[in-house]
UniProtKB/TrEMBL annotation:
The keyword Isomerase does not apply. Keywords: Carbohydrate metabolism, Glycosidase, Hydrolase, Polysaccharide degradation. This is beta-glucosidase. Residues 427-600 form the PA14 domain. One of its GO terms (biological process) is cellulose catabolic process. Belongs to the glycosyl hydrolase 3 family. GO terms for molecular function: beta-glucosidase activity. Its EC number is 3.2.1.21. It holds the Pfam family Glyco_hydro_3. It catalyses: Hydrolysis of terminal, non-reducing beta-D-glucosyl residues with release of beta-D-glucose. Pathway: Glycan metabolism; cellulose degradation.
């Protein structure tokens, strides 16, 4: 039985029962052109368009891939947060990546999400990249293989993975318009390679284009990428979606192969497509080609059993907590571990013995820095800070822990402490009361004297909408009834603020929209007339203003009030439409010399010190790149001071990408902890006290200084050609450059120590084919006294290359778990890809006939064994 609804023939059962799997070709034939065009853009910020009369539901997407946010930035549902991708990449643990993918898939189901927007495999070509922490590695092989297992795990439970950002979206500076100028060889061998590997090993159901241009053409309309390589050469038939607001054309993007413009409603789709059809610039077949991929993904969503437009929740099980904790400890890399004084035993692992005094110091110790910033950030369902976890271990052993912040080196005044001491007025519930008015009552709430921003107290007029929010850091792009409040509301926010200690407090305020802050009725910060653009909240927000409130009393309740109006005159043009945003912080204030002195005093009276420094989501985030490679503020001075006070000091660096370490020679032990997710504190404590033997290896090179990177003058705002990013380094990215230029890094790619030692011997190979297919085997023995896991890395070097090549390239790796004294055989398969390069003149892959060295080692600079092999016949090929 059929029924015609708005020109569309639909099955009545579809209308009654909701979305169903459809016959793709029959549905394309039956849909009206208006409904077809509707499917080519999003319905809203997170959902694809639907055609209910045809049984086509609204597929739900969500940001990933270290967590599943759900469908709201504002007041979003809590989520499990896994370590950032650079941490997972540094585990070199493919089964772990798979298990994380499965857990993320389960989280998607809890939030009724059909498509997870991840993983990210853009290349870490420079340490300053704002989103560098979102990718697995500087090496395309590690990047692609880790992504493949992530995808395999995500899609094993029916959720669709969306690989991103295709391609060369490797900086945030001018990311919407910059032109990545790359040679074809570098594009193929370095930047496309992780995408190719992921598609070959575990093809995702969706792929996201990047914002930038590639060699002159935006990737969202680049037919060479989307049609010639992705569809024809690689044979991939999934859905291509734009990055959010990343479409800049109609005809070009349609013909190139971009299926869906996000978010919705579309700007370059919809009526614009109909106009181009009527003008003959597009044909119905062009529309049908795009709709076909939309319907295929829709059918997968139906088959997954995940409800359409379902409620959102989150998971918390013992198994999940155990996986989060394992992921946190597995991502930690032991960079240095030396004896102290006359001892012959390395400082780590630490002992928490009865009566022992442990000093925990540093701004990253008391707060759980679970993730970098931007679209990767989620509201963690719970979090464990290093300080809490270390105190728990110490308490069980009878040791004591003292804490000192040591450095106030935040980029923006932290909201974490604020969130622990604010409540909705008249309650004990943490949060902020928010009242919205749609307009300014005929001008009475003007910006002039006596207007909205110069009042504090009750407003007589009844508000259109009221809610509460859980945080003083939010962006209002979703989760609110905009039909009631409009996109330019007047907003009053009230809260009770109770300081946790007496003395001066520093308040910081930045916003999307004009806002003033009042303390007990007095104007404390004016970000109304003083509003200037800044970098927060995807570049939409203002600069931060700071004020010290000099004499606040511990335990006393103060009234905080904010008045906000989002006026278009003060809005910074950006990719998202929003009704306002806020980043408000408060922290106990002390001069730099005072807090360092407190840390030194604590370190002197303690048996050992653990200094936790690093960055956070304010420093590493979408929307901007770092300005330098140094730890901010007085963190380096703090490390020097504590090391001078107590030689038994461990430095823990928590960053997503490399930083300089000017105190390295003075400290006996250094751990690289990355952003560790919900269980970062417990994962760190497990490694510090030896419950877990660290096995991570750096998935990126740590340079001694930024100038040692060959991208130093061709990255971000430093590029000598405005609007273009000249990839002048070619194929020499990361360790390939440091090897080629013979530059000594701070720590090489693949470096990571253990609490035990390993020996390598008996490297052999056997041929799978007469040309280049090999099985490489070696023996690895645990020569220490504790169990441990080793990551064996296999590199290939061309003995007499026909054209310039890196001295060696990683082509395989494997992990092996060994008991003390145990020996195991490690096997790595090497295919023809291990010996090939891209030949630009022939436009194909080439594995030249000749001799190659196969190298096995513990890092790129610690090669233990090698053997020579011959490729007996030259090979030529294209495709996956």
């Amino acid at each position: 039985m059929t029924n015609s609804v708005n020109g569309t023939t639909a099955n009545v059962a579809f209308i009654r029962d909701g979305p169903k799997e459809v016959d793709v070709e029959a549905t394309i034939a039956s849909l009206s052109i208006q409904d077809k065009v509707k499917l080519l853009a999003g319905k809203d910020f997170w959902h694809f368009a639907d055609v209910p009369a045809a049984g086509i539901g609204s597929v739900r997407t969500s940001d990933g891939a270290n967590g599943v946010r759900g469908t709201q930035f504002f007041n979003n549902v809590p989520s499990s947060c896994f370590p950032c991708a650079t941490g997972i990449g540094s585990s070199f643990d493919l089964p772990l990546a798979y298990e994380i993918g499965r857990a993320l898939s389960a989280e998607c189901k809890a939030k009724n999400v059909h498509v997870l927007l991840g993983p990210t495999v853009n290349t870490l070509r420079n340490p300053l990249a704002g989103r560098g922490f979102e990718s697995f590695s500087e090496d395309p092989f590690v990047n692609g293989m880790m992504a493949a297992e992530y995808i395999r795990g995500i899609q094993s439970e029916g959720v669709a993975a969306c690989l991103k950002h295709f391609v060369c979206n490797d900086q945030e500076h001018e990311r919407m318009s910059s032109d990545s100028v790359v040679t074809m060889r570098a594009l193929r061998e370095i930047y496309l390679e992780p995408f190719r590997l992921a598609l070959k090993q575990s093809p995702p159901l969706a792929l996201m284009t990047s914002y930038n241009r590639l060699n002159g053409t935006h990737t969202s309309e680049n037919s060479f990428l989307l049609s010639d390589i992705l569809r024809k050469e690689w044979g991939w038939d999934g859905l291509v979606v734009s990055d959010w607001t990343g479409v800049v054309s109609t005809v070009e993007s349609m013909k190139a192969g971009l299926d869906v413009e996000m978010p919705g409603p579309g700007v370059f789709r919809g009526e614009t497509v109909l106009r181009c059809l009527s003008g003959g610039k597009l044909e119905v077949e062009d529309v049908d080609d795009r709709v076909r991929n939309v319907l295929k993904l829709h059918n997968h969503a139906v088959r997954s059993g995940i409800p359409f437009n379902g409620a959102e929740g989150y998971r918390d099980t013992p198994e999940l907590r155990a996986l989060l904790r394992k992921a946190a400890s597995s991502s930690i890399v032991l960079l240095k571990n030396a004896p102290v004084g006359s001892s012959s035993t390395p400082l780590l692992p630490l002992r928490a013995e009865r009566g022992r005094k442990i000093a925990v110091i540093g701004p990253n110790a008391a707060f759980a820095q679970v993730s970098g910033g931007g679209s990767a950030a989620v509201f963690a369902s719970w979090s464990v800070s290093p300080l809490v976890a270390i105190r728990e271990v110490a308490q069980e052993a009878g040791a004591t822990v003292g804490y000192a912040v040591g450095a106030q080196t935040f980029r923006y005044v932290p909201s974490a402490e604020l969130d622990s001491c604010i409540c909705v007025p008249g309650t004990s519930t943490p949060g902020i009361r928010m009242q919205f008015w749609k307009d300014g009552r005929g001008g009475e709430w003007s910006h002039e004297e006596g207007g909205f921003f110069d009042q504090c107290g009750e407003i007589e007029e009844a508000e259109e909408y009221e809610t509460t929010t859980k945080s003083a850091n939010f962006l209002m792009i979703d989760g609110l009834p905009f039909d009631k409040i409009s996109q330019t509301p007047f907003i009053r926010m009230t809260m009770t603020f109770t300081p946790t200690s007496s003395g001066p407090w520093l308040f910081g305020l930045a916003s999307v929209g004009e806002v003033n802050l009042y303390l007990d009725g007095r104007l404390l910060i004016e970000n109304n007339r003083a509003y200037t653009p800044g970098e927060i909240l995807f570049g939409l927000g203002s600069s931060e203003l700071r004020v010290i409130a000099p004499k606040l009393e511990e335990g006393r309740q103060y009234a905080l009030e904010l008045r906000m109006h989002v006026s278009q005159e003060k809005m910074v043009p950006g990719p998202f439409t929003c009704a306002g945003g806020l980043q408000m912080g408060a922290t106990r204030w002390a001069e730099e010399g005072v807090v360092i002195a407190e840390a030194v005093s604590l370190a002197k009276e303690s048996d050992l010190a653990i200094v936790v420094v690093g960055l956070n989501g304010d420093w590493e985030s979408e929307g901007f790149d770092r300005k330098d490679m140094d730890l901010p503020g007085s963190m380096n001075a703090l490390c020097h001071a504590v090391l001078g006070a107590n030689e038994n000091t461990v430095i823990v660096n928590q960053t997503g990408t490399p930083v300089t370490m000017p105190w390295l020679d003075r400290t006996p032990a250094v751990l690289q902890a990355f952003y560790g997710g919900n269980e970062l504190g417990n994962g760190l404590a497990d490694v510090l006290f030896g419950k877990v033997n660290p096995s991570g290896k750096l998935a990126m090179t740590f340079p001694k200084r930024l100038q040692d990177c060959n991208t130093y003058e061709s990255f971000g705002a430093t590029t000598p050609t405005p609007g273009k990013v000249m990839y002048t380094e070619g194929i020499y990215v990361g360790y390939r450059h440091f090897d080629h230029a013979d530059v000594q890094p701070l720590y090489p790619f693949g470096h990571g120590l253990s609490y035990t030692t390993f020996s390598y011997f008996s490297l052999t190979f056997s041929r799978i084919s007469a040309s280049s297919e090999l099985t490489v085997q070696l023996q690895v023995k645990n020569t220490g006294v504790v169990s441990g896991q080793e990551v064996v890395q296999v590199y290939v070097a061309d003995v007499a290359p026909a054209l310039p090549k890196a001295p060696k390239e990683l082509k395989g790796f494997a992990t092996v778990e060994l008991l003390p004294g145990e020996t195991k055989t490690v096997t790595v398969q090497l295919g023809r890809d291990a010996f090939r390069h891209w030949e630009e003149r022939q436009n194909c892959w080439v594995a030249d006939k000749g001799r190659y060295r196969v190298l096995a080692g513990a890092s790129s600079s610690d090669i233990r064994l090698e053997v020579s092999v011959d490729v007996q016949e030259p090979l030529r090929w294209t495709g996956l």
